[in-house]
Amino acid sequence: MGRIEARFAALKKEGRRAFVAYLTAGDPDLETTARLIPALEAAGVDVVEVGIPFSDPTADGPVIQAASQRALKNGATPAKILAMVTALRMKCSVPIVLFGYFNPILSYGPERFAADAAAAGADGLLVVDLPPEEAAELRRYTDPAGLAFITLVAPTTDPSRARKILRGAAGFVYYISVTGVTGTAVPKPENIRADVERLRGLTRLPIAVGFGISTPEQAAAIAPAADGVVIGSALVRLIAEKSGGADLIPAAAAYAAAIRRAIDTAGEKSGGNAV
Hints:
There is one protein chain. This protein has a single domain, classed as TIM Barrel (Alpha-Beta Barrel), CATH 3.20.20. Helices cover 49% and strands 14% of the residues. It has a nine-stranded parallel beta sheet. Helix 2 packs parallel to helix 12.
C-alpha cells in the first residue's frame, strides 16, 4: 500500500476526511516551496499536489496561471522540482502528487520521468490533459513504477464515460465540483452530494472534491459529502500576496490549520462517516 492509499485508509478508520492542498512548485521560488510543504503537513494537510508549471494550462484559472508564469520565470523545471521532492523526502512523509500537463512530461521523456519521479519519492500523478484513450503512453511506465495515476471526473461526465475513466483510476478520484477552470466559481454542496453519491456506485476509491473551495466555511460544507477536500487557488493566492515577506510560511500554515479544523468539525457533526 502506497502513501496515498495508506493516508486515506487511516483517515477512514478515524472517521475523518482528507485535506488535499495544491501549490505551484517554484512560486515564488523552489526554496520557499520546499519550506512550505513541511509546514503544510504540520498544519494538517494530508496530501500535497505539487504543480509543475506549464506555459499553456487548460484547466487552471488566472491565479494558478499567474503562479505558473512566475515559477517559469524563476527557472522552475521538472528536473529541479523532482530534486526538491528528493530532498523533502528526508524530512517529511506527506503523500505527494505531481500535478500538471503532459507537454513537460513528454519533453522530459515519459519513461525517464516515471523513473525519476518514483526515485524522488513522488506517490502519484495527475495529468490534466491526458484522457484514458491516450494515457497508455505514460502509464506503461508510471504504473510499474508504483505511481498512482489519479483521474478527474467532472459534473458533465456522463455515467458511461465515468465508468471508462474510473476503470483505470488509482489513489483517489478527483471530482471537479464546478464547470470551468480553477478558482472561478463556488460549488454547491447539494449538487456535490448527489454527484459524489453516483460516483460511489462506480468506484471504491476515495473521492476528493476540488475547484472553487477557498474558505473554511466552504470546506466544512463540502467535507461531509466526500472523502476529501482539495484547495488550490486560494492557497496559491495567499502565497502570492505574502511573497517576499517573513510571514509567508506562518500565514500559509495558519490558513491550512483553519481549513483542517473546519473539515474535522464538519466531519464530527455529520457523525464522522463519509457519505
